[in-house]
Specification:
This protein has 334 residues and is α+β, with helices and mostly antiparallel strands. Helix content is 56%, strand content 8%.
Length: 334
């Protein structure tokens, strides 16, 4: 039995480092922190729960931005004997924490809004309108800073969603302030606060789901594991594939390991070409392949998923295969 592996670093357009959003984080954090202080102060003076709720929400966003910024800096640290993948996983953990911050803000807003509905307080509608309008400008400008990277990095996507939701929330508060100023409907202040909570709930669900999925070593959303398995089993000389695992090392880097049964063995060229194809077509940046000349333990015939070990193996249908009956593949991805 022979063992070969290939640890593939980025090629074919993937050999540059991820874009540096440090400047965007610095500007966004400074703008939003200043706005939190202004909005919170005017919220107290105007006796507006909507402004205070939005200020609390923005404060959670500032914290999320700082954590995301810190995790990206930490991800650039080199690997060590204790952390052989480096500290890239921190970007995933922070994106999950960012989603939790959103939901914590929802709880506070709803609690206060219910209390205000029972006993509405008089508020200054024009003060609400002016301060919230400033928030629309600041949040929209900050969202634009992260727009370019929202499709490639879950952390950047989280920052973009935070700021976009904030801009929408602030726009709603502007409308509410105008209505309160014109009608004196003070009950509208807590109602808008509840609407803010619902917007935050919807905006944060995708981030919470995606980050939790990656935390559990799930296959990244843009990678189809079935298609990767089809590619590997279709390679020349591959009799079957088993123990295929695909997961995220960070919010921007993906990893694959697999066992390939190849009766005639494999070459370094085969390993390098396969890894480059996985990188170019599937955005899998780190590939480790183990080549075995025979399936001595029957891994390709055992549904290891029932044993909690690995995704089921698959036999290739090709001339000269020593395995007469291909494994039935369920198509289920745990």
């Amino acid at each position: 039995m022979t063992f070969d592996h290939n640890h593939h670093h980025d090629h074919h357009g993937h050999d540059h480092p991820p874009p540096d959003f440090s400047r965007a984080f610095a500007i966004g954090t400074a703008l939003n922190l200043a706005f939190v202080l202004v909005e919170g102060g005017y919220g107290f003076m105007a006796n507006s729960l909507a402004l205070l709720a939005d200020a609390g929400h923005n404060l959670s966003d500032v914290t999320a931005l700082l954590l995301a910024w810190g995790s990206m800096i930490m991800a650039r640290r080199g690997a060590t004997a204790r952390h052989t993948y480096g500290f890239k996983k921190g970007t995933i953990l922070v994106s999950f924490g960012s989603a939790l911050f959103l939901y914590a803000a929802i709880g506070v807003i709803l609690w206060e809004a219910v209390g205000r509905l029972r006993a509405p307080a008089e508020v200054n509608g024009m003060a609400i309108t002016v301060v919230a309008a400033i928030g629309v400008v600041i949040n929209t400008a900050t969202a634009f800073l992260f727009m370019a990277g929202r499709k490639d990095d879950l952390n950047i996507k989280g920052a973009f969603l935070h700021m976009t939701a904030d801009a929408a929330v602030s726009a709603g508060v502007v409308v509410a302030g105008l209505i309160i100023a014109a009608t004196g409907w003070n009950w509208l202040d807590p109602v808008i606060s509840i609407a803010i909570a619902l917007v935050v709930l919807i905006a944060g669900w995708g981030l919470l789901k995606d980050s939790l999925h990656l935390t559990m070593a799930g296959v990244p959303a843009h990678i189809e594991a079935e298609v990767v398995l089809d590619y590997l089993t279709g390679l020349p000389g591959v009799q079957c594939v088993h123990d295929l695992h695909i997961w995220a090392a960070s919010t921007t880097e993906n990893v694959l390991t697999a066992h390939l049964v190849m009766p005639d063995g494999g070459s370094d060229d085969f390993l390098h070409e396969t890894a480059e194809h996985l990188c170019h077509d599937f955005a899998i940046h780190h590939t480790t392949l183990q080549i075995e000349v025979e399936d001595t333990d029957g891994s390709c015939h055992i549904n290891n998923k029932n044993q909690g070990c690995c995704w089921p193996g698959r036999s290739a249908r090709q001339p000269g295969s020593q395995i007469s009956t291909p494994l039935t593949h369920t198509g289920e991805i745990p």
